């Protein structure tokens, strides 16, 4: 069998042309499309990875913000608790101080009332003692209370000890104004003369005197010279009586032992 080389050559040429045409118009577009698709898929995968990383970053940031928010909330709650406790303590302390102050004021008011009552009782007692003594002396001795008080006062002058007498004498000698004799009542002339004589004899000098009536000198006589004084009053006995009554009431108010 003879080979037709022309035919073979033509077929080879046709095959090569066909291969070139397939490569040029079929394989290359397909390969380019495959490459483009592969690149697009790679880009999409990269974008997905980037989105995933960004989502993870946002999630971490959100979690961090949640943790920070929880910490801030806990700190604010703790601060509010501390401040509320401080306010509670301050209000309790203010209430305690107010109660203490109120109690102190009440105690002071009670003490003032008791002191005022004691003063009223004391003054009334002195007045009653004075009235009773005056009446008793008038009924029993036939003399006035003033006369007896003057006698007691003159005896008190004569019984002055050395130191008290020296101080009073020094006050009399250095006085720039007349000495004062005070009494709750106006002394009659004979009483004034008797007291003047007693003072002159006691201090061996002529002592200038001024006599005054003073309601505060209850049932007694007071001699004052340059800041020094000697006095006798029924108030002295009233004070002693008041002390004894107070002691008696205190003893009665004590709980019984046993």
Average pLDDT: 76
| Radius of gyration (Å) | 62 Å
Largest sheet: 4 strands, mixed
* Secondary-structure element order, N to C: HHHEHEEEH
Anisotropy-based shape: rod-shaped
**In which range does the helix fraction lie?**
over 70%
Poorly predicted parts: 137-143
- Decide which structural class fits the backbone: alpha+beta
Question: Could you please describe the fold and organization of this structure?
Answer:
With 258 residues, the protein is α+β, with helices and mostly antiparallel strands. It has a domain at 142-252. It contains 5 helices and 4 strands; from the N terminus they run H-H-H-E-H-E-E-E-H. The chain has helices spanning 5-140, 145-158, 162-174, 189-203, 234-253; strands at residues 179-183, 209-213, 220-225, 228-233. A 4-stranded mixed β-sheet has the order 2-1-3-4. A hairpin with a 2-residue loop joins strand 3 (220-225) and strand 4. Helix 2 packs parallel to helix 4 (189-203). 10% of the residues are buried. The model is unreliable at 137-143 (pLDDT under 50).
Q: Could you list some keywords that capture this structure?
A:
4 strands, 258 residues, alpha+beta, 9% strand, four-stranded mixed β-sheet
